[in-house]
Amino acid sequence: MLIGKHVVFLGGDARQLEVIKSCIEMNAKVSLIGFDNLQSPFSGATQRRLTKKVLSQADILVLPIIGTDDQGKISSVFTSEEIYLTEEHIKALPSHCLLFTGLAKTYLKNLCESNQVNYFELMMRDDVAIYNSIPTVEGALMMAIQNADITLHDSQTIVLGLGRVGLSLARVLQAIGAHVKVGVRKSDDYARAFEMGLNPFYTSELGEQVENADFIFNTVPAVILDSAVLSHSPYDVVIIDLASKPGGVDFEFAKKRGIKAILAPSLPGIVAPKTAGKIIARTMMKLMVENVAEEGNLQ
C-alpha cells in the first residue's frame, strides 16, 4: 500500500489515467500537474501548479512515458499550458523521492544523475516491453489491414527483427495464415525463427528477399529499408515501421517510388491506451511498493 505517500503526476497522456487510478486505490495522496483540461476529474486527486514547494513534498514523481524533450519540456494532452522541468525543480525533490518515466533522454538522465535522484525507465524493462508487444502487434495488424487491398492471410510477409515485438508479431502473422519470413542479423535469432517454423534470412540478403513482399513490418531502429533495398520491392508493398523515430525506412525514397510506408511508433498508447496504461500501472505499483517498503526498512 502507499498510505501516506505523496505521488505527484507531471503531465502525460491517457495511459497515465490508469496509473493515477491505481495510486488512489492504494490510498496515496495524489497531486496532478498539467491535467487541468481533464474531462472527468478524479475523486481523490488534487490539481496543482508546478512549483518547487509541491515537488519538495513528493515521495514519488511520475513523468510522461516519453519523459521530457531535450529542453526539459513535458508533454501533456490534458493542458494547453507549456510545462518545463528544470534543474531547480529536480533539486527541490526530497532525497528519498523516486522518479518514474517511460524513457529518459539525455536531458532528464543528466538532471537525475547529477542530483542523485533515483529514477526508473519502465520501457527499458523486459516485462513491460513484452506486455506492450500485445497492443503493438494488434495495432500493426490494424494498420496493415487498413492500408492494403489484400488479406494478411496467404500474403508474403516480412518481419524485420526478432526482438520482443518482432517475435510476437511473427507468431501472430503465422497464426493467421501469412507466409512469414523473418530478417535477422544474429545466428541465434536465425535458429529461433527456424525452430518456430518461420522462414529466416540474414538482413544482408534483404534486397533479394523483398522482391515479392506484400507486407513488411520493421522493428529495427536503424535505416534498414534504404533506397538500395526499396528499389527491389514491389510498388504496392505496404510497409509498417514500428521502430522508434526516425524509423528504419528511407521514407523520402519510398514516397518517390509510390510505396506506402507508414511510421507507427508508440502504438500501445494510440490503439489501446487503457490496456497500455494498465500494463504500466501494474509494473509501476509493484516497483513503488517494493521501494517504499525498502525505504521503510532502512529507516
UniProtKB/TrEMBL annotation:
<dbReference type="InterPro" id="IPR031629">
    <property type="entry name" value="DpaA_N"/>
</dbReference>
<dbReference type="GO" id="GO:0051287">
    <property type="term" value="F:NAD binding"/>
</dbReference>
<dbReference type="Pfam" id="PF02826">
    <property type="entry name" value="2-Hacid_dh_C"/>
</dbReference>
<dbReference type="InterPro" id="IPR014215">
    <property type="entry name" value="Dipicolinic_acid_synth_A"/>
</dbReference>
<feature type="domain" description="D-isomer specific 2-hydroxyacid dehydrogenase NAD-binding">
    <location>
        <begin position="151"/>
        <end position="227"/>
    </location>
</feature>
<dbReference type="InterPro" id="IPR006140">
    <property type="entry name" value="D-isomer_DH_NAD-bd"/>
</dbReference>
<protein>
    <submittedName>
        <fullName>Dipicolinate synthase subunit A</fullName>
    </submittedName>
</protein>
<feature type="domain" description="Dipicolinate synthase subunit A N-terminal">
    <location>
        <begin position="6"/>
        <end position="123"/>
    </location>
</feature>
<dbReference type="InterPro" id="IPR036291">
    <property type="entry name" value="NAD(P)-bd_dom_sf"/>
</dbReference>
<dbReference type="Pfam" id="PF16924">
    <property type="entry name" value="DpaA_N"/>
</dbReference>
